[in-house]
Design goal:
heterodimer, A: about 70 residues, alpha+beta, Translation Initiation Factor IF3, 4-stranded mixed sheet, globular, B: about 375 residues, FAD/NAD(P)-binding domain, 2 domains, 5-stranded parallel sheet
Chain lengths: ~70, ~375
């Protein structure tokens, strides 16, 4: 699932991921696109705390791509 | 020509009044009708609920008849708009369809406590009148135990209200000589106590001074009514004796039913407040999807911009007003001190040290608000 949160500001992208995570199935991969640089820090921190798997954090120029797998 | 405004809260009422003031001649000559459609006959001054739970104000102080707040040039229709047909320029009511030339969507936001299982049965909140009255009675009888103030979703109305209620709870229990018997815990969905960094720093220090603890990255998914525990998406459980929740919010049902957005937030152009894809439809207040506080002051400042631009278009003048994200929030830091923040899309807030004068300004504004609603202040 792709969550395109570009143009949204902190904590918008994280809250969009949290909303999607509530609905996602275990094993599902979620990809967040965010133009807010703080997402690249906040989202991995949240993923670590909540025990999911961080697959990728990548700077794509004008936005960040953060890929997460729901593991529980 | 008709301007239809859907929603009789702060955003809709102020827009109607400002438009009437600017378009007096057009109204007098019957070339124009300004129609305000509201489900409710009364307006609730929602910031007053923070005071009602401590019995500092009563219901009659914070509720007024809408018709008494409106400019005589505005036509008021009490009724439920069920759908907005933006393509055909119609507002659909139960038994009638209303055509418009300009539409202003001011349908606000609402709490959806039912989306967190167990919350309705076990929790309290102050985000509507009934909930606030229930909490007022609960607080009056609360003697000892653990109070958890829990923000259960972002965005929500009045971003600073959870911080304010936490400070006021601290003062309330202190005033009653039971602070030593009460533990206060504050929870927030992200990794700081507020969305804005510098506000967080100040509040975190003030929480520490008051021995208020916080739980961060805390996103409730359920309230376990039997065990009196909040269960989070992150896998934590937090016990409580009294839960003061800020329930999740959604936009109005009519926005969802009209297929505009699944959560009820209207896609809005940030400077002109035009609904994306439409030149004659505008949105303001809580209902927009803008990255700005859902607060009365925002609705107030946006209403000024909208009224200026819509009236300019009608008069054949250039509609050059722009909303730049202006917002102002008082922050009560106790029963006798407050601070405030001003900010916009590009300017982060700066503080004044919490002080008595700002607090008394806020208390005075709680009464003066009715002048704002009338478009005077």
């Amino acid at each position: 699932m792709i969550i395109d949160a570009r143009g949204s500001y902190c904590p918008g992208p994280l809250m969009e991921l949290i909303k999607a995570m509530k609905k996602a199935k275990v094993g599902e991969v979620l990809e967040v696109l965010s133009s807010d640089a703080s997402s690249a820090k906040d989202i991995p921190e949240w993923v670590k705390k909540s025990g999911h798997e961080l697959l990728e954090v990548k700077n794509e120029g004008d936005h960040w791509r953060i890929v997460v797998r729901k593991v529980k | 020509m008709r301007i239809a405004i859907v929603g009789g809260g702060v955003a809709g009422t102020l827009t109607a009044n400002y438009l009437a003031m600017r378009l007096r001649e057009e109204l007098r000559s019957k070339k124009l009708e300004i129609l305000l459609i509201s489900e409710r006959e009364k307006m609730l001054y929602e910031p007053g609920l923070l005071y009602l739970i401590f019995n500092r104000v009563e219901e009659k102080d914070i509720v007024k008849e809408l018709k008494l707040l409106l400019d005589p040039g505005v036509k008021l229709l009490i009724g439920k708009a069920e759908k907005l047909d933006l393509e055909n320029q119609k507002v659909l009511m139960k038994n009638e369809s209303i055509d418009y030339d300009y539409l202003v969507i001011a349908t606000g936001s609402r709490i959806v406590p039912e989306e967190i299982p167990g919350l309705v049965e076990t929790g309290h909140w102050f985000y509507d009148l009934e909930g606030a009255k229930r909490l007022r009675n609960e607080l009056a009888n609360f003697k000892k135990g653990k109070v958890v103030v829990s923000v259960m979703g972002i965005p929500h109305k009045c971003p600073v209200a959870p911080i304010e209620v936490t400070f006021l709870l601290h003062d309330f229990f202190k005033l009653h000589g039971i602070r030593k018997d009460v533990e206060i815990v504050y929870t927030y969905p992200v990794n700081r106590v507020f969305t804005m960094g510098n506000v967080s720093e100040l509040v975190e220090q003030m929480f520490a001074d008051r021995k208020i603890s916080s739980r961060l990255f805390f996103n409730p998914v359920e309230v376990d009514a039997k065990k009196k525990e909040i269960v989070t998406l992150e896998g934590e459980r937090e016990k409580f004796d009294l839960l003061v929740a800020i329930p999740p919010h959604k936009g109005a049902k009519i926005i969802i039913d009209s297929g505009i957005n699944e959560d009820g937030w209207v896609p809005t152009e940030k400077f002109t407040l035009k609904v994306k894809g439409y030149d004659n439809v505008f949105a303001l207040g809580d209902t927009t999807d803008l990255p700005i506080s859902k607060a009365g002051s925002v609705a107030h400042f946006q209403a000024e911009v909208l009224a200026e631009n819509i009236s300019a278009e009608i008069k054949g003048l250039p509609p050059t007003a722009r909303y730049f994200g202006k917002a102002m929030c008082f922050i009560e830091t106790g029963f006798d001190e407050a601070t405030y923040i001003w900010f916009d899309y590009e300017t982060p807030p700066r503080f004044v040290k919490p002080n008595k004068f700002t607090h008394w300004m806020k208390i005075a504004y709680n009464r003066m608000f009715w002048l704002t609603a009338r478009g005077i202040l």
